[in-house]
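INFO  loader      accepted 1 record
INFO  loader      residues=342
INFO  predictor   begin
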Amino acid sequence: DYAIKNKLYEVPKIDKKDIKVAIIGSGPGGLTCAADLAKAGLKVTIFEALHIPGGVLKYGIPEFRLPNEIVDIEIENLKKMGVEILVDKVIGRTFTIPQLMNEYGYKAVFIATGAGMPKFMGIPGEGLNGVMSANEFLTRVNLMYGFEFPFSDTPVGMGKKVATIGAGNTAMDASRVALRLGAEKSMIVYRRTEKESPARAEELHHAIEEGVEFHWLTNPVEIIGDEQGWVKGMKCIRMELGEPDESGRRSPVPIPGSEFFMEVDTIIYALGTKANPIIAQTTPGLKTNKWGYIEVSPETQMTSIPGVFAGGDIVTGAATVILAMGAGRKAAKGILKYLGLE
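INFO  predictor   done
INFO  writer      dumping tokens
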């Protein structure tokens, strides 16, 4: 903060090289890799699918946890180092990786797209108005300023009684944002207990402190709508914990006859994400595992295709910003070694 306030950052002197590298995605992994490669003198271009760079740092993390100003300053510093950032570019649609390498002269590519496809439960009623993923909800708020509608283009579409399904860090973010947007009730609905919640202890503490309601050992089985197709509630069932499953946590088991109705008008799914298959489908020879995540060398982050590297959630599944940044740094070293520059 002190360095930002006093403008202490100076662009390092860089010996430029006529070698082009493409970074797909401008989240923490992509930005970190781009910075290290730019410092090494390479011509780096970041391709971002959204209209604003920053990835999950901008759309997924609320302003009260990570101010946009900090992310914007880091992005501006990258631009000062010569990094080109192209927005509204969906790799797999606008361009493919083979095109980037064979037609546009990129000598290496780093895939840092994250794993942004939300998971749903597959229960009746998920198509009703008022049901959305946490990704969509947070993007509408953080990136599109939906809370300023109609002065912004995209409304949030949130009601007064909000239920967030899941109990990880993203669920805590969504439930706390809902309160800030004026929800009368913001509830966490989770099929296990607080002890099994995957959220960090401090995130749980903040949510409790701010007034989020917690419905532990509760599982939705159906979403109920009104005549206009809007959510008016959920049919839920009480759960109890049985034997541990493969994750080591005790499995939730439904209690027969314990069904009840919960009145809500907005439902946010925060059950994690999975890999978007668009890059794998348009990149012949790119190996993925059974869950669709890209397989890489643990030493270099290189994929099954020479010169194509990957890191972050698209490799590991949903993880942390720090781990994605670490993968970006490791990939930069792998790329420099592959290009004979280290």
